[in-house]
Amino acid sequence: MKLSPTYKMPFRRRREGKTDYKKRLKLLLSKKPRLVVRRSLKYIIAQIIEFDPKGDKTLVAASSKELKKLGWNFACDNLPAAYLTGLLIAKKAKGKVKEAILDTGLYRSIKGNRIYAVVKGAIDGGLNVPVDEQMFPNEDRIRGKHIQKFKDLPEIFEKVKEKILGE
Question: Least CB-packed of 21, 24, 78, 93 within 10 Å?
Answer without folding.
Answer: 21
